[in-house]
TrEMBL record, chains A, B:
The keyword Ubl conjugation does not apply. This is TetR family transcriptional regulator. It comes from Asanoa siamensis. Residues 6-66 form the HTH tetR-type domain. It comes from the Bacteria. Residues 29-48 bind DNA. Keywords: DNA-binding, Transcription, Transcription regulation. PROSITE patterns: HTH_TETR_2.
Length: 181, 181
DNA sequence: GTCTATACTTCGATAGAC
DNA sequence: GTCTATCGAAGTATAGAC
């Protein structure tokens, strides 16, 4: 029945998230996941076409949130877009820390996956937001540095969201607000 | 003879660097390297104990430069350490762009390698330098963001060193110089 | 519709001949 | 120092049980 299907599928995702986070994507075999779930490798591949599809399913919610954020920023005027982008992105990566870590674990290997097709244009839009839609190359470079740096810190730093959030917003504002040095 | 040994070894490194850069570490098999070099897989593994050892040999010069930079920063006083760290790090990653990209390609998988044992303490020393040896958590967070962000941009951005260097130094200074927002 | 058994392919690595 | 042959493990694929 579909209840069982969903249960098994969810259990696979739960176990895979745990093992991918602990041992990395490449460090976790289908055999490992199947053993922990209590099923066979073939059962995994009944629910997911291949190993990659398990990871893509895990990061899908984060990807949707990124799409939503970029859509929201499109409606913000040039004056407010920088702050909206900074706060929106910091909130997003703090909310999806595990997913961000998984994405970093498998890039650049996964960048050619169809599911990643639009990710490049999404991050480009975010960079434009961080740069306040400036055409200046130095502003865009600063935006790229902050975007990648914030994501990396959220993965690596174990402090909780309450401590991390203000520090990340402050450094982004300080680096991206022009005419201060 | 040793001349031949060195020639083959160097050729393996040359080909491996090219293939790793183009297809990624995981996307390049020993078979691929051997075919391009014109030898067998067993010959590769005569010169290098395992596949990982080829990559470690490729990034060794960059690792040595990082050790040198950290040693140099230890002799700089608190007042000048931030600028020295920023300029030293930007120069280093621009000099070893290919190696930095290779490292990012294989982390976090390689972080447990013995050769990476001291890398964590080296980057910690660099973070302290970026933060001007401040004990403030917000300063240290800003330092981590800039360090990771600069490395990521150097990998991703195809502009040459002359264009990139000033933009990177400026954003780091702006973000890390306190009392400006 | 859900799952098992099993076979196929590729990969990193080893053994032993020359 | 280099080769051929082969191993074990991993990801993948499919036929068929229930």
């Amino acid at each position: 029945m579909s209840v069982v299907r969903i249960r098994t599928r969810d259990e696979i995702l739960r176990v895979a998230a745990e093992l991918f986070t602990r041992y990395g994507f490449k460090g976790t075999s289908l055999h490992d996941i199947a053993a922990e779930v209590g099923c066979s490798k073939a059962t995994l591949l009944y629910h997911f076409a291949h190993k990659d599809a398990i990871l893509l399913a895990l990061i899908e919610p984060a990807r949707q949130s990124l799409i939503d954020l970029v859509a929201r920023l499109a409606g913000v005027d040039d004056k407010g877009v920088r702050d909206a982008a900074i706060e929106g992105f910091v909130d997003l990566v703090l909310r999806y820390r595990r997913e961000v870590a998984l994405i970093y674990d498998v890039t650049p290997q996964f960048l050619q996956e169809p599911a990643f097709d639009r990710v490049r244009e999404l991050t480009d839009a975010l960079v434009a937001g961080f740069a306040g839609r400036s055409a200046d190359l130095a502003d865009q470079t600063a935006a790229k540095v902050l975007l990648a740096g914030i994501a990396a810190v959220v993965i690596d730093d174990k402090r909780d969201e309450g401590e991390l959030r203000p520090a990340l917003v402050v450094v982004a504002r300080r680096a991206l607000i022009p005419g201060k040095d």
